[in-house]
Amino acid sequence: RVDGIGLRFAPTPVAPRLVEVIAGPGARADRLAEVEALALRLGKLALRVQSGGESLGGRLFDVLCRAADALVDLGQSPEAIDAACRVWGWRRGPFVRRDQMGLDRLGAQQRGPGAANWASVLAGAGRPGRSGDAGFYDWDAAGKPHASSAVEALLNETRPAADPMPAARLRALLLAALANEGARMLETGMARCASDIDLVALQVLDLPRWRGGPMHAASEL
After folding, report:
1. CB 63 within 8 A of CB 71
2. What Cα–Cα distance (Å) separates residue 15 from each residue in 11, 45, 135, 142?
3. Cβ distance 53 to 22 under 8 Å?
4. What share of the chain is helix, strand, coil (3-state, %, to 5)?
5. pTM > 0.85
């Protein structure tokens, strides 16, 4: 928990320039200005967050994972969801990204009652992600992911059969989940403006810059 002012530096492989300036309940305006100036001198993109410690990037990533897992619950395949992202310019969809991060690190992410965290399920089945050559995908020696029949069989054991959704529909549902979370952060005052949320999404989630982020995409729709 942050009572005064905190700096949250995004992991270098994820977003090397991003730093969230967390303004806790006891933060003073002059100190906030000093900290933001320091971040800028370090060459960082400084965003102010009203929070007890929670980060914008963390919340957006968690809701992306929950939305992607919900699509899997509905019978959609991880590779189809990632492919729908790629054709839109989003290089790393939620499943290939989680494989690269390591599924065993993501088991603490919570979903609603009765809903599975698929990263945790696969890690428990001996598929920890890219580091173990098997996660949502099978990874070859060159570091390329391939659709896994073993994963498809595991998923199909606990979900109903369903027709594939169009790529545009898959993308719209992911973006809607992100935009809804952004709206909640604006409503509570955690984020100061929609463009801050879009900037975090571009930096942390690797959304295509020319698309403008989930809040911009929602306004375009």
Report:
1. no
2. 6, 10, 23, 24
3. yes
4. 50, 10, 40
5. yes
Beta pairing partners, 137: 147
Query: φ and ψ at 84, to 5 degrees?
Result: -65, -35
The per-residue pLDDT string of the chain (221 residues; one tens digit each, 9 = 90 and over) reads 667 787 777 665 556 678 888 877 777 788 888 888 888 888 888 878 887 667 888 889 999 999 999 999 999 999 999 999 999 999 899 999 999 989 987 766 678 888 888 999 999 999 999 999 999 999 999 999 999 999 999 999 988 889 999 999 999 999 999 999 999 999 999 998 999 999 889 888 889 988 889 999 888 87
The residue to which tokens 């545009």 are assigned: 168
Q: Which residues of 178-198 are buried (b: 16+ CB within 10 A; e: fewer)?
A: bbebbbebbeeebbeebebbb
Alpha helices (runs of H) in 102-193, residue ranges in sequence order: 118-124, 149-156, 167-188
Q: How far is CA 95 from CA 91, 137, 184, in A?
A: 11, 8, 25
